[in-house]
Amino acid sequence: CQGNHYQYDTLRRAKHSSMMVLYHLHNPTAPAFVTTCYICRLDIEAGQGWHCEICPEYDVCNACYQKDGGIDHPHKLTNHPSMADRDAQNKEARQLRVLQLRKMLDLLVHASQCRSPHCQYPNCRKVKGLFRHGI
């Protein structure tokens, strides 16, 4: 709540703050709070700044980073990934998990029907051993 400056000192602010808390609970992927540039004090849009991995409060906008290239800060600055980049990474990870689950399901179906003691299907013998162990 401190990062968003939610306040409960008046009824109007309490209503707004409560609605914002509910919004963020129901939309966990939405940016939780706006990051402020350490140098110029302007808000940094999601995916448009640089962050220090050592100093948790040190974020710099693209304009300030391009002016000095991060020379004024002793630690390495990393670029914030944009929401589109994160969505693409999540989509790739999801597709990889689906592929792995399909392979695992194929292996389970194969091993449950396979009668060969020297099957060359990858991991077939291991899964058949697990089936026997469970009986």
From TrEMBL:
Q: Which residues form the ZZ-type domain?
A: 32-85
User: Mind telling me which residue stretches traverse the membrane in this protein?
Assistant: none
Q: Per its UniProt entry, which superkingdom is the organism in?
A: Eukaryota
In the record, what terms sit under GO molecular function?
A: chromatin DNA binding; histone acetyltransferase activity; transcription coactivator activity; zinc ion binding
Q: What class of enzyme is it?
A: transferase
Question: Quick one: signal sequence residues?
Answer: none
- Could you tell me the keywords of this UniProt record? Activator, Chromatin regulator, Metal-binding, Nucleus, Transcription, Transcription regulation, Transferase, Zinc, Zinc-finger
Location within or outside the cell: Nucleus
Which reactions are catalysed by this chain? L-lysyl-[protein] + acetyl-CoA = N(6)-acetyl-L-lysyl-[protein] + CoA + H(+)
Q: What SMART domains does the database record attribute to this sequence?
A: ZnF_TAZ, ZnF_ZZ
SUPFAM superfamilies given for it?
Answer: RING/U-box, TAZ domain
Spell out the GO cellular component terms annotated for this protein, sorted alphabetically and separated by semicolons. Answer: histone acetyltransferase complex; nucleus; transcription regulator complex
Q: What is its EC number?
A: 2.3.1.48
| Pfam families membership | zf-TAZ, ZZ
Q: Which residues form the CBP/p300-type HAT domain?
A: 1-30
The biological process GO terms on file are: positive regulation of transcription by RNA polymerase II
Q: What is this protein called?
A: histone acetyltransferase
